[in-house]
Amino acid sequence: MPSNYYDSDATELVETYDFLMKYIVIGEAGTGKSCLLHHFTHNSFKDHSQHTIGVEFSSRTVRLGEKRIKLQLWDTAGQERFRSVTRSYYRGAAGAILVYDITNRESFINLSRWLADARTLASPNLVVVLVGNKSDREDDREVEWAEASRWAAENDVHFLEASSLTGENVEAPFLMAARAILLAIESGTLDPEKAGSGVSYGDRALRRVNSSSRLSFGSLSGSARRKGGAVKLKVKNWIPGSKCC
Amino acid sequence: MASATSSPRRPSASAQSESSQSDRRTVSATQSRNPVSQRLSKVLGTNFDNEDTRQALRTLSDLYAIPRGKEVHIVVDDGDDELGQESFETPLPAPTIVLVESVPGESAARARKNLRRDMETQLAEGSRKFLQALGEVDAKLCELQINVAAMRSSCDEAETQLALTNESSKLLLERAGSLRDERQEVEDKKSIISLFLARFTLSEAEIDALTSREVPIGQRFFQAMDKTERIREDCRVLMAGEDGSTRAGLEIMASTSSHLEQGYEKILRYCSTEFRNLGRDSQLEVSPGIKEAILRLRKRPELLTEALTILSETRQATLLSSFIAALTRGGPSGYPRPIELHAHDPLRYVGDMLAWVHQAIAAEREFLESIFSLKSDGRMVGSVRNAPQSEEEDWMRELMDLAVGKLCVPLKLRVQQTVRSQESSIVSYKIANLLQFYLMTMRRTIGEQALLSSTLKEITDIAYRVFYDSIETQSLALARSRFDHDDPSLTPPHVILDHAQILREVMQVYQSSLLGDEDEDEINAGINQVLDIMIDPVVQMCITNSEEKAKLRPRWDGQVFILNCLCYLQGVLAAFDFTTQKQKDLQTILNKRAKVLTDEHRDSILRDAGLWEITEAIVHHAGEEPLSRIPAAQPADLQRSLKNFSAWLSGLEVVQSPRLSQLIIQKMHTRIHQDALARLAQTYRRICEEVKNPANRYEAAATLLGSERPFGQVHLLWQIFGLEEREREEESESEDDESDGDDSDGSGSGKEGSEE
Known about the structure:
The complex is a heterodimer. Chain A is an alpha/beta fold.
């Protein structure tokens, strides 16, 4: 899939959203996770970045097609000594952005361990996107694109290379994961209704269901109708002559 | 005959007949003096072209009708007569005369005779007719006059009437005018009042929107609120004027105030309901209506507080039940697994719980930010908050505090249970550090005063206490233990190795818990207590125990054992930067023990080298008696001693000592041995000096010394030992004393020593 597809018109900060998704950003220390995230949320390169301590949180709303998706992003520390802390944040993540540094072979070698951790600790439907960061430093490259791509295919994860310095492909992994999660919802393997799935409906989606406008997800309309009904009830509560107003 | 007299003046003017008359003129010009011709020419010159003349002639010809055949004659001959007749006889109707004429010219003649009479008759007749006609006219006119007079009187009457009417309508008009003005005025007032009312009162619909339960909170409601606010503002401006407060103003204020209050009440009800519903949903999104409502309520802090209290209560309950669910039930179809499933893995268990709370706080904060319409500053949770202290921030902090406050009880219960049930001090320490990490994180996120922060502090303290208790128990148990007296080995025993291993792990955990932004004092403070607890009793135990054992087993080298143990501990500490203080303390003890060993070693090599007696003699020599007279220092004895020494110098012990080779640290061995050798060299020099001293009365002192190696040459001895020549023993000893006295210096010199 061409990565440009994701770059177009994804920047939009809106208040309402259709889905809320929880992501974790993982990978070896110094691979540029925080910078990638910073570029994604602030649209600028983070200079003089320190090692992340424990876990940091940020969020951003993106648009994918007609859908607005709010991403809750948990940026984890890559350093070994924080593993005991960061491991706890895998719980209930819907997506994981697995980052390695294309100029550091070590960070690529260790990917299997990270992926195994993510798969065991997060939900089984976890969508993983592998990101080869620092793609602007072609001269220092130690991991070939083809090799990483093969690894990604073998391990059933999405893959692309990005640069948090130039901003190239910075949004793509997040949107890629969002798209995969939406597809999982559509196919019924993921249910945003249930707590801990890492995904939940936003007010906007509910309103849309409520106003019985079309939702492109077949299964969604089935499960969401119930919710829509609940919303209707809620609306009724404060319309004519009820006790609460 | 007006026409005749006028005619002579006209010939020139008549252009028509000019050609026909030109002959006659030439004739008349010649006979102009003749009256007849004058007359003739006058008559001939008469012009009949004149319309009036023609008319007269025609009338005349009608009066005297002429037969057709004789017309030419008459025209030529009787032109002159005809003129006169014509003018008089025109009005006379004389058909009879005309008809009667039977002889040509008869009527003309008659006409000449009777013309006047005819004319008069004709005139009279005409006049009579006129008279008659005028008489009729007169009669008609009289009649007309009467009518006119009647009309006039009517008109006068009408006019009078009109004047009267006018007079009376004038009043009416005036009245109407004033009425019209009045109406205008009233209309003006009306429009002013309606404008005033529109500006200063609420419409029925607006009041409805504000007060009725039927109308939902929305655009309409907020507009009505805005208007009410504006009215009150305007009204206040008005009342601030010179006239002071007016009744209308007061009334408006009163009514708007009541409506406004009802509006606020309605917002409160709305918010309460929404919050109750919202709080129950796990998804946290805020509708624009609520944001707006909260913005409005901020003008009524007491109502806002009430609404927020409800929100807080619901959030507390929701978070608590979510937390319990995450703990016990886990996600859908068991994924992610319930946190309590991992209760056997204490670190994961505690970490998962705290991470859950941390994530809940992040979501809660986003939720609150959207409720208070705060734009998220993109700050990462965990990084330090520098935001200015705004009212919203205060509220948010309080709400966050309350929302997660309820989690404290179950959290504390579980963590405490976990902490207390730990047997391994390492795990306890890891838990304590994890708690400490989250304590710092939470403090930064929700503030130090938050209940969660204080609970975490409490739990963290408990965890640390448990850990300290555990290592203290361990250390005390170790201190009470006794060495195996039958074990000849000089290496640190298992108990110490195990203990050191625990210490090493604890320090590794501590090192990994450092965030990298602490200064040195902070870092040291964090571990010093651990080191005190874990090192001091062991050192103490080591020394006392080994001394005790050495007494019972004299062949067992207690000094070397102590040094080995201490060096081992020092090695464990040296791997970590933050142990420098303890390393210094330990080094001081180490130095002391090393000095004891060095002294022992020097004595033993002096004995081995055979210089013991002579040295003793020199040291104890006092008084006037020369040294050569002292039994142990007599030349023969000295000779023997020096021979022994020479032999010893060829031995292996010069390079290394079998006793010291038991030391596990090679450097320590070298250092102590070299120190001892240095003292030996210094002793030898002392001997040389004493022997050479004439006061001691040695004969052939040079020969005595030169007979055996190193032939009285001290520098040679230094070379043999492979050492730099040192200062005098006294000085070096005093240096040692100094270093012993000063602990901090001791470690320094000790290090230097070991480095040599």
